[in-house]
Amino acid sequence: MARSSAGPAVAGLTAGALAIVGFLAFQASATAPDHPTQARGDSHSSAPGNGGKKKSPSSTKVPADSGTGRRVVYQLESRRVWLVGADERTIRTYPVAPSSVDPDPGAYAVTSRNMSLVGSDGVQVEHVIVFHQEDGIVFGFSAALDGSLPNPKARKKTGAVRQTRPDGKALWDFALIDTKVVVVR
């Protein structure tokens, strides 16, 4: 029986492949209304089989306790973000993947933005929107260039909230410095 000296390399490739498969599964779990019509800024979609009528799924309704006005809403329980316009209409909503630490519920504001950097978990990320920092933990939204997700069970405490690259770009365009970010349970 021949032995391969590529053991660690294969293990690294396998871990990378699992990360990609996990991210693709995360993307596939997103409900269809979140994506097809967003290029037009319409959060509602025509559901198949409903005669083409517009439908707003209750699962994507902005949480009632999220305040008013133009804001980013991050609901911890559903792991979902809403971009809400000044007219209270949802511009976009999408699922996210949180890291090992959640921010406390409350109202915050975007404090910094960075087009690209290495995240606290060592992954290259883009469209970084920071909205809170507490006890050395930075809380913000970002998209990993390699599509990886944060490890919610990591020993290192990080406050990264990962999103897909298209969702990250939409948030980047929406959330300028001082934009309100409301975190709800």
Give a verbal description of the structure.
It is built from two helices and twelve strands. The longest helix has 22 residues, at 7-28. The termini are far apart. Mean pLDDT is 78; it is low at 1-6 and 8-58. The protein is globular, with a radius of gyration of 18 Å. With 185 residues, it is α+β, with helices and mostly antiparallel strands. It has a single domain, classed as L,D-transpeptidase catalytic domain-like, CATH 2.40.440.10. The chain has helices at 7-28, 165-174; strands at residues 45-46, 54-55, 71-75, 80-84, 90-95, 97-98, 106-109, 112-118, 124-134, 137-144, 159-162, 180-184.
List keywords for this structure.
185 residues, alpha+beta, L,D-transpeptidase catalytic domain-like, five-stranded mixed sheet, 17% helix, globular, disordered N terminus
Secondary-structure class: alpha+beta
The rounded distance between the terminal residues' Cα atoms is 56 Å
Q: Give average pLDDT, whole number.
A: 78
Named at the architecture level, the CATH assignment is Beta Barrel
- The CATH superfamily is identified as L,D-transpeptidase catalytic domain-like
CATH class: Mainly Beta
Give the total of domains. 1
Question: SSE order, as H and E?
Answer: HEEEEEEEEEEEHE
Q: Helix count, per DSSP? A: 2
What is the β-strand count?
12
Radius of gyration: 18 Å
The shape, in one word, is: globular
Helix content: 10-25%
Order of strands, widest sheet: 5-4-3-12-7
The largest pleated sheet is described as: 5 strands, mixed
Strand percentage, roughly? Answer: 25-35%
Region (Disordered): 33-70
Keywords: Signal
Protein name: L,D-transpeptidase
Organism: Streptomyces pactum
